[in-house]
């Protein structure tokens, strides 16, 4: 290994190489994680990427898990991204060969990968929001996520002008130059119909709780903070906190003492509740519910911007019994 690279230089070169190969949203995720890794290396006194070894990677994994308080599934994805980066470093002869293959990734079970909520749970959350948090950002956010099955990044990308209250739909645009790319770029651009009750919530959110602000690019976001467009992490936290059963039912299914449970006492630790879900879990659950109602996969695929093949593999979590009963109904069998 003859050439030395600082962690920042290594990350910058890697991202430049991958930029033409991946979507804007994927590049965004790579950038966030790898810049976090480079910053962490600096705090550990690692001047050159050549100095990292298995202990370095292990310590960073623990840092992400414990200090950044991320879920095991997110940690698994992070370490997969880091492993791909390390493999590139190996190909450039700046780290030891075999370092990537020797990485130990966090294990994830099927329950974590397939976490979802039922329509009954979603309706419980909506009833709670209607009664106690009507018209809030969280109310409008969950209503859109559940009704449309959108990705969180897509919802964050919405401008005030993308919402059409009278016609009851929203339009999605790929705007990477102003920090709101869509995962499938121009292929993800579309118009999505909304139910009337969702529009009522959005209308009242705009009247009561939307801040009259623009983002860093002069655009008017649909969802706002006092300073502009919210970060993904802030929107994600709203869903994680809402989905704790103690929040919307007042009861804990895990027999925890409320005031001794950090998932209850500190909203930033809401993800530590075993029953909490992420926005992506809402997306999976919404798609499953549309399918359970008998809607054709092609229509659901278009509405939710997911190919039928990916839908089958990752989003259709209906049981065999549910699928059989739908076929019975479709064929008119008594």
UniProtKB/TrEMBL annotation:
Known Pfam families for this protein?
Phage_int_SAM_5
Stored PROSITE patterns: CB
Q: Which residues form the Core-binding (CB) domain?
A: 5-90
Domain of life where this protein originates: Archaea
Question: Listed GO molecular functions?
Answer: DNA binding
Q: Which UniProt keywords apply?
A: DNA integration, DNA recombination, DNA-binding
Q: Does the keyword DNA-binding apply?
A: yes
Q: Which GO terms describe its biological process?
A: DNA integration; DNA recombination
Q: Which Gene3D superfamilies match?
A: 1.10.150.130, Intergrase catalytic core
Name the coiled-coil region(s). none
InterPro entries per the UniProt record, alphabetical: CB, DNA_brk_join_enz, Integrase-like_cat_sf, Integrase_recombinase_N, SAM-like_dom, Tyrosine_recombinase_XerCD
The protein depicted here goes by the name Site-specific integrase
Q: Organism source for this protein?
A: Halorussus limi
